[in-house]
Amino acid sequence: MEKKVTIKNESGIHARPAALLVKKASEFESKVEIDFNGKKVNAKSIMGIMSLGASKGSEITVITDGSDEDQAANEVAKLIESGFGE
């Protein structure tokens, strides 16, 4: 499953949002990846997420594959769309 979302928080995906994203993605059995400008990283890796350098207004794609892929894609996208509570 793929879901496109736009980064809404002012500082983009810095350390705190990256940690929240990894925590949320790790709740699921499915493989969760983030694609940004053709670079695909494991969403369960904080170093992978940080390496994207996604800033406010960036459109990223959440890609999930596995038994709970629908729920994983929806919840990870919801977290990103919420602006990580910032």
From TrEMBL:
Key words, A-Z: Cytoplasm, Phosphotransferase system
Q: What are the subcellular locations of this protein?
A: Cytoplasm
Question: Which residue ranges does the record assign to the HPr domain?
Answer: 1-86
PROSITE patterns named in the record: PTS_HPR_DOM, PTS_HPR_HIS, PTS_HPR_SER
Q: Which ranges of the sequence are coiled-coil?
A: none
| Function of the protein | General (non sugar-specific) component of the phosphoenolpyruvate-dependent sugar phosphotransferase system (sugar PTS). This major carbohydrate active-transport system catalyzes the phosphorylation of incoming sugar substrates concomitantly with their translocation across the cell membrane. The phosphoryl group from phosphoenolpyruvate (PEP) is transferred to the phosphoryl carrier protein HPr by enzyme I. Phospho-HPr then transfers it to the PTS EIIA domain.
Q: Under which name does UniProt file this protein? A: Phosphocarrier protein HPr
The protein's organism comes out as Tepidibacter hydrothermalis
